[in-house]
Design goal:
Blueprint: E1 11-14, H1 23-38, E2 44-47, H2 51-54, E3 62-65, E4 68-71, H3 73-82, H4 93-120, H5 122-133, H6 141-159, H7 167-185, H8 198-212, H9 219-225, H10 228-242, H11 254-257
Parallel strand pairs: 1-2
Antiparallel strand pairs: 1-3, 3-4
C-alpha cells in the first residue's frame, strides 16, 4: 500500500523539559522521537506542564496527527505502520519475534528500573522527583500530585514484585539487561544488521537518557558505560538522526533537551 501523506503539523506532547520531565518519561519521549526520525516523519515537540492529563491514556508521550491522538511507542509504531511506514517490514517472522522479546526486556527491566529509582529510592524521590514532578503547580497541589503518583507507581512495583528490591538489586537488573543488549548488538551498527528498527529507537531513548541525565549518583549511567558498544550505538544514532536536524526549529533536538550531549 502507498504511504499516506504525513501532516506537516504533526506534534508530540511531553512535559516541560528543563524543570519538570523525569528520566522515564524523557526516555519514552526520546524513543518515539528517534523512531519517527528513523521513519523520516517530521514531528514538532510540544512541551506542556499538563501533558500527562492531556493524554487520553494518561501515558506519555502522545502524538497528535491529523485528528488522531496516539500514546506510547508500541501503539505509535502500529499507527505509523497503518499509514504505510514501517522499519521492521524487512525482518522475517523469527527476527520479528526476537525484536519483540528484546523490546519487552527493555520495558520490563530498564523502564521499571527508571520508575523504581524515581519513586522508590528515597534520596532520588526527595532531591529530584518531588521537586520536578510538582514544579509547575503551587503548594500544596505540587505535593499532592507527587504523592498520588508515587502511591500509584509503588502499588505497581508491589504488583510486579519489585517493591522489596534494594537499589543494588535493581542496578544488577539494569546491568543484566545491558549485557544482553550488548551481546545482541555485537559489532553491528544496529540490532538487526544495517538498518534501524523500533528496537533501536527504544534502546536509544532509554540508554541516551540514562547517560545524559544528572541523578544523585552516577550508579545508573555507570552500568551503561561498562558496555562500549552501547555508548557508541547511542552516539551513532544521536549523530545520524538528531544533529543538524533542527535547522528550521521544528524538531527539538534530543541532545539539547538532555543536560549534555554524549560528544562533549
Amino acid at each position: 500500500t502507498a504511504a499516506e501523506p504525513w501532516p506537516e503539523n504533526a506534534a508530540l506532547y511531553q512535559q516541560l523539559k528543563e524543570e519538570q520531565i523525569l528520566l522515564s518519561d524523557n526516555a519514552s519521549s526520546l524513543a518515539v522521537q528517534a523512531f519517527l526520525q528513523m521513519c523520516n516523519l517530521p514531528i514538532r515537540v510540544v512541551c506542556r506542564a499538563n501533558a500527562e492529563y492531556m493524554s487520553p491514556s494518561g501515558k506519555l508521550p502522545f502524538i497528535h496527527v491529523g485528528n488522531q491522538v496516539v500514546s506510547e511507542l508500541g501503539p505509535i509504531v502500529q499507527f505509523v505502520k497503518a499509514k504505510g511506514h514501517s522499519l521492521s517490514d524487512g525482518l522475517d517472522e523469527v527476527q520479528k519475534a526476537e525484536m519483540k522479546a528484546y523490546m519487552e526486556l527493555v520495558n520490563n527491566m530498564l523502564l521499571t528500573a527508571e520508575l523504581y529509582l524515581q519513586w522508590c529510592d528515597d534520596v532520588t524521590v526527595e532531591e529530584i522527583t518531588h521537586p520536578r514532578y510538582g514544579s509547575p503547580y503551587p503548594w500544596p497541589l505540587n505535593r499532592i500530585l507527587s504523592y498520588q503518583k508515587q502511591w500509584e507507581v509503588r502499588r505497581k512495583m508491589k504488583a510486579i514484585g519489585w517493591a522489596g528490591k534494594t537499589l543494588e538489586q535493581v542496578l544488577e537488573d539494569v546491568d543484566q539487561c545491558c549485557q544482553a543488549l550488548s551481546q545482541r548488538l555485537g559489532t553491528q551498527p544496529y540490532f538487526f544488521n544495517q538498518q534501524p528498527t523500533e528496537l533501536d529507537a527504544l534502546v536509544f531513548g532509554h540508554l541516551f537518557t540514562i547517560l545524559t541525565t544528572e541523578l544523585t549518583t552516577d550508579e545508573l549511567s555507570e552500568k551503561v558505560k561498562n558496555y562500549s558498544n552501547l555508548t557508541a550505538f547511542c552516539r551513532r544514532i544521536e549523530q545520524r538522526y538528531f544533529e543538524g536536524h533542527d535547522k528550521d526549529g521544528s524538531a527539538t533536538v534530543a541532545a539539547r533537551s538532555a543536560k549534555r550531549s554524549l560528544l562533549r
